[in-house]
Write a structure and sequence with these properties.
Strand content: under 5%
Radius of gyration: 20 Å
Distance between the termini: 81 Å
Shape: elongated
Largest sheet: none
Helix content: over 70%
């Protein structure tokens, strides 16, 4: 028999997703060091037990957050008509997409890279970071070979990280030129 003053159990099918969103806000504001079950529960305005019910560890929560954050650039890439069009200048399309991405919500880009680079110290995040690279690589490999696609990803990451770390402005012309060099078909 239930206690007479027990609160009825609240049906909240979106709670897990709200917790992931709350984790992204906490990391965006306080970094990964500021992430705890307690800070996420407070941010999501749910009981602390909800976070541990849905995510047994912080790594599980970080995996879900990284998976959600990773999709922003990947989705833009997949949805870009210029990527699939063999007549388009792939270097120009990629440079423009990078510019739109890094020139948009800069905090969001910083958050994505913070979570992505957290895989260096948190092995649980490595498969998710690899998923992102594999997904982007598959999209690019439709226009080039897999090895060149990986080189393009490395260049795009490098350019974005330099802009983020130095606080400099993104130079679309430079990015396009460097991408064109990597994408150039060598003479045989």
């Amino acid at each position: 028999m239930a206690a007479p003053h027990a609160r009825p159990r609240r049906h909240d099918p979106d709670r897990r997703e709200r917790l992931v969103d709350a984790a992204l806000r906490v990391v965006g504001r306080a970094g990964i060091a500021g992430l705890s079950h307690r800070t996420v529960a407070a941010e999501a305005d749910v009981p602390l037990g909800s976070t541990t019910y849905h995510f047994a560890s912080l790594d599980e929560l970080l995996v879900a957050a990284l998976r959600k954050a990773n999709d922003n650039f990947g989705r833009a890439l997949r949805e870009s008509p210029g990527i699939a069009d063999p007549a388009s200048d792939l270097a120009a399309v990629l440079a423009r997409l990078m510019g739109d991405w890094i020139g948009g919500d800069r905090r969001g880009v910083e958050l994505e890279y913070e979570l992505y680079l957290a895989a260096l110290r948190r092995p649980a995040l490595r498969p998710v970071a690899a998923e992102w690279a594999d997904d982007v690589g598959r999209v690019l490999a439709a226009r080039t070979d897999p090895a060149t696609a990986r080189a393009v990803i490395a260049l795009m990451d490098g350019v974005c990280l330099q802009v983020l770390l130095t606080g400099g402005a993104y130079d679309e012309g430079y990015a396009r030129e460097m991408l064109a060099r990597v994408l150039a078909t060598p003479d045989t």
